[in-house]
Write a structure and sequence with these properties.
single chain; about 260 residues; alpha+beta; Ribosomal Protein S5, domain 2; 4-stranded antiparallel β-sheet; 12 strands; elongated
């Protein structure tokens, strides 16, 4: 974005509005749908304005990691499909896809969302492995928050497959959910000049000087942070951004409970 375009955007923000008429801390319409995939053990589709993203959960019996023999495994992957934006290319995951997966993984993991010890069938030998795959259908800004919301909704909707003689039977779906203890959501706050915004449009993402993604649990506790953007953030700015996230998080969480 050139300087003139950014100045024009800042003029809007100075008047307390955005290009689409929203307030600076106002979400676009958000729609959450679960059960969108018949092959996944759990799935969800989240639309935030025109941004459209899906998450699927697959469960498998595997050997635990050596340092956590009595705990189940968790893995989050993200695919940014070229069909969702001309910015994305085919091939191995790029930097943005890797960051998206890592930030969502960290929010789930650090909040201790899943009681991983309940995923253990036999210590050191067999545990449930939870894989969350995130794919983009349309990128119109705020993939981080939309993807994290889709991941949590898919985890909540997931049900274990049947097990016969130690072998997973994916043709059988039980009524047993994944043991979820916490429900963290992420709120990414963007700094554009001296103004803070949430749920940015692509133009706002491009103009942002910095961003802070904050994972917040249902008790208002901050569980994870990820800073992005070229500019530094002061302690005061971080404090304000975290405060915004804690205040806005319940608006997202109520959509999936």
């Amino acid at each position: 974005m050139n300087n003139e375009q950014k100045k024009h955007l800042i003029t809007y923000l100075a008047n307390g509005t955005r290009y689409d008429g929203r307030g600076l801390l106002e979400w676009r319409p958000i729609h959450v749908e679960t059960g969108v995939s018949q092959s996944a053990e759990g799935s969800a589709r989240v639309r935030v304005g025109k941004t459209d993203i899906m998450a699927g959960v697959k469960l498998a019996l595997e050997k635990p990691y050596g340092d956590t023999p009595d705990q189940g495994n968790l893995m989050v992957n993200a695919e940014l499909y070229p069909l969702s934006s001309p910015k994305f290319e085919t091939g191995p995951p790029g930097e943005q896809a890797i960051e998206l997966a890592r930030v969502i993984d960290r929010g789930i993991r650090e909040a201790k969302t899943i009681d991983v010890k309940k995923l253990c069938l036999k210590s050191g030998e067999k545990v449930w492995s939870v894989s969350v795959d995130i794919v983009t259908l349309n990128d119109d800004g705020d993939l981080m928050d939309a993807g994290a919301l889709a991941a949590l909704a898919a985890l909540q909707a997931a049900r274990f497959p049947g097990v016969k003689e130690g072998i997973v039977d994916y043709g059988e779906r039980t009524s047993t959910p994944i043991p979820i203890d916490m429900h963290p959501v992420t709120v990414t706050v963007y700094l554009i000049d001296k103004y803070f915004v949430v749920d940015p449009l692509p133009e706002e993402e491009e103009a942002a000087d910095a961003r802070l993604t904050i994972a917040v649990d249902e008790h208002g506790m901050v569980r994870a942070l990820q800073k992005g953007g070229a500019e530094k953030l002061t302690i005061d700015q971080i404090d304000k951004m975290v405060g915004i996230a804690v205040k806005k998080a319940p608006e997202l969480r109520k959509l999936i409970k």
